[in-house]
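Hey, why these numbers?
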Amino acid sequence: MNITTRRHTRRHLLLAAAALAGLTGLAACSDDNKSEPATTEAPASSEAPASTEAPAGKVLKVALLTPGLTNDGSFNQVALEGIQKLKDEGLVEFEVREKLADPAASEPVIREYATKGYDLIIGHGIELSEPILKVAAEFPEVHFAASGGPDLEAKLLANVDGWTYDFAQQGYLNGWVAGKIAGVTKVGAVGGPELPFILAAHKGFALGLKETNPAATIVETFTGSFDDVQKAVEATKGQVAQGAQIVWTSGDGIGNGVAAAAKEAKIFTLGVTGDAGGVAKEVNIASVELDMYPTYKAYVDDINAGTFGKKFFVSGLANAGLILTPINPVDPAVPADIQAQVEQLVADLVSGAKVLPNFYA
């Protein structure tokens, strides 16, 4: 594929489809604190009230714990951005602890915050889910939030909320866009650990690609890590050597490595979140990115209302927890009308006109 790189500024906005659907909050919880399905494989999220005014009660003390650094431009940074917005609204004060991917290191930190009278302790990342659940059982008066895959829902306690995101939508949209790029016959897919929800995203990607370019093939590599940039560089280079013309990454933290290797190879990417050190605007066509604010706002509202606990939130297109970035026309191979096409696809996913299969089956 003859590709000429052009710089193009990316900006984050909600697609018009989601706005037309009028779905700006999280979908309402049922009476038993379980949510209705957003897709066939994951329940929909609980509704976050539209008001951003600070409640009459106290400002909540929140501890945000992340497995990586919150300046990674990706998974960990979106957590910081979400809680910072709540602070700006006068709803919370918070403290951040980073690099807590090791449960042996995170458990005493979680227990420390619980003993200090924090109102909410958020474990942002599957690495923190088991320590959160363990410590939460010891402190029933403290509110905790854990994240992971759909299986986390069954493990929630009375003082624990859970969170995941719609991996099917994430993968499918990226694959659908990849298949629209002219001249592409082979696509690379770089993932982190081979966990069920990561595999679900890759199945979604394969389906999206098949629908828009049935003849295209996929070269797939799993690095085993969410944040090992060098492994992502090596995986991308290996896929380029096998003929990949575009590389998609399902792993937030490894996107910087994928983007760097793609720039060197003069190919393009999908799924790189953040700016990847300035490289994303040169190589990345589109991404499905997280916004943690709706979920964190729902946590705070429920604590203030006395209804927190055993709710499972799923970030998706409909509740603005997932956002497909505008198409970055980095090359003439990107169709001129693809933005309108993808907006219609998002509208169909939001309305239910397009339903994705259960990729966890």
User: Anything to note?
Assistant: The radius of gyration is 20 Å.
